[in-house]
Design brief:
The chain is an alpha/beta fold and 493 residues long. The protein contains 20 helices and 15 strands. About 4% of the residues have low confidence.
């Protein structure tokens, strides 16, 4: 009897192993691709000048070899003519805070393209030379080449940050070793995170200066904002930045003296005890330093709406695989647990609104704002972020500028990207309604061009259908679980 049971158990284990092996080795599918041409004449369109915030009369834009060759009248022969039907043509959007994974060509990147996002700043390279879960710099470079050639549905990766420096126990020697490994690999930015110690932070800053790459990321708890600016940090992520700095107890919070206090009450304190003078000084210092702010308000909205059933059950979550969907909802549940009851919910809602107000104030004071998502279903949530920036007090024209030419300027690529101009890359979005009048019109996408290669509305719909199918394929679930199990991230670098 025991021998028989052992055989059954062994058979089950072998069968499971075969299923896992089949899932891991099962070939991945390719998303629908753009038209193979990159010469077009786009007629009957209003061109949006993102620098002045104005729309032209109806004109024709000619694209040749993936570059804008003429505006205003036909510019020689083109492979095809597209009737813009009175739509609005503007540069493609750039998401300045996202993350990509080995399976992103199946599960994430098509959603970005389908939502008009043609450029992406990836905020996390893999910890080592390769990884089974996170996409590494080599993959992103390959994806760029394939997207440029029309062989992959993906935005361009315009900047890639290192894996984040987070471990509070990092010694100066370990910090130098790790930073130099990342910069030798070719990352554009070194990324700091919440728990990094002051000495390690300063060491990362020194390595960023040595390698001539940007110092970016969260503002570590141990570091005051003026000190970070003095150290050379030039990009600050998330709307926690100003609420945590602009209240009289900020030094106590940074030192850990408030760690034992109720989280809801600390969040409420940051709102109620807000000191406008501290923020005015912070805004002036950031402007003087030329620092950039990427508030990702959608992430704080997730906190504020963590108990909202309509938000938890957002219909767009069907584009996520079950593992990511579970992780997203688990994060929401953890937030509600950390900020319980009515008091916690109100504290999060007030904190979210406070962050929006401070972003508006920062922008009015001359702080450079960029658009990023850092969240699930990033392509769709990008348009939510645009709307939240308008709610924060920016005009639609200012939001569009942040999403395009200002993002290109941050990356030092505004000579080739970020506006509709002769000689610029034809990374374009054609909308059916004017986003200068209503920012929600950025969702009304007729066509997307990347390097002059066309995704018309039918192809964009195919990208959405493809991603939904891929999210529900068991072999992709197995690949994700396998990737997570063997990822170097598990070592908690």
């Amino acid at each position: 009897m025991l021998r028989s049971a052992t055989k059954v158990t062994f058979g089950i284990l072998i069968s499971l192993a075969l299923v896992v092996a089949a899932g891991v080795l099962w070939p991945t599918s390719s998303a629908p691709l753009p038209d193979h041409h990159h010469d077009y004449r786009i007629s009957n369109v209003h061109v949006i000048d993102v620098q002045t915030g104005t729309a032209s009369d109806l004109v024709t834009v000619t694209v040749r070899n993936g570059v804008i060759a003429a505006i205003g009248k036909p510019g020689g022969e083109a492979a095809a003519v597209i009737d813009g039907r009175g739509g609005y043509l503007l540069p493609g959007f750039w998401d300045m805070h996202m993350h990509s994974f080995q399976l992103s060509p199946q599960l994430h990147l098509p959603l970005f393209v389908a939502n008009g996002i043609t450029g992406a700043r990836d905020m996390m390279d893999c910890p080592g030379e390769d990884d089974s879960l996170i996409a590494c710099l080599t993959e992103k470079r390959r994806w760029n080449a394939e997207a440029e050639a029309g062989r992959l549905a993906s935005p361009r990766f315009i900047s890639v940050a290192s894996y984040y420096f987070e471990n509070p126990a990092l010694t100066p020697a370990e910090t130098v070793q790790r930073a130099r490994a990342y910069t030798r690999r070719g990352v554009d930015e070194l990324k700091v995170y919440n728990r990094l110690s002051g000495p390690a932070y300063l060491q990362v800053a020194e390595e960023a200066r040595r390698a001539k790459v940007r110092l970016v990321g969260h503002l570590p708890k141990a570091i005051a904002l003026p000190d970070a600016l003095a150290a050379g940090q030039r990009s600050f992520e998330h709307a926690h930045l100003f609420p945590r700095h602009c209240f009289p107890n900020a030094a106590e919070w940074r030192s850990g003296k408030l760690d034992a206090a109720d989280r809801s009450r600390v969040a409420a304190m940051m709102v109620v005890k807000h000191d406008p003078g501290l923020c005015r000084d912070a805004f002036a210092a950031m402007k003087a330093a030329g620092a950039w702010f990427v508030p990702t308000h959608v992430t704080r909205e997730e906190d504020a709406r963590a108990g909202d059933s309509s938000f938890i059950n957002d219909s767009r979550l069907r584009y996520l695989d079950p593992l990511s969907r579970w992780a997203y909802r688990d994060d929401l549940a953890s937030t509600r647990s950390a900020y319980p009851g009515r008091e916690g919910g109100q504290a999060l809602a007030d904190y979210f609104d406070h962050g929006l107000r401070l972003t508006g104030a920062a922008h009015r004071s001359g702080v450079h704002i960029l658009v990023g998502t850092d969240t699930a279903i990033g392509g769709f949530r990008y348009h939510d972020e645009l709307a939240l920036l308008v709610r924060a007090g920016l005009t639609p024209a200012q939001v569009l500028r942040a999403a395009t030419i200002d993002a290109a300027r941050y990356a030092g690529l505004d000579d080739r990207f970020g506006s509709v101009g002769i000689g610029k890359q034809a990374d374009l979005v054609l909308l059916s309604a004017d986003p200068l009048k209503d920012i929600s019109n950025t969702r009304r996408i007729q066509s997307v061009f990347i390097g002059g290669r066309l995704y018309d509305r039918s192809r964009l719909d195919l990208l959405l259908a493809f991603t939904e199918r891929q999210a529900n394929r068991p072999d992709n679930w197995i690949k994700l679980l396998w990737g997570f199990a063997w990822s170097s991230v598990a070592s908690d670098l």
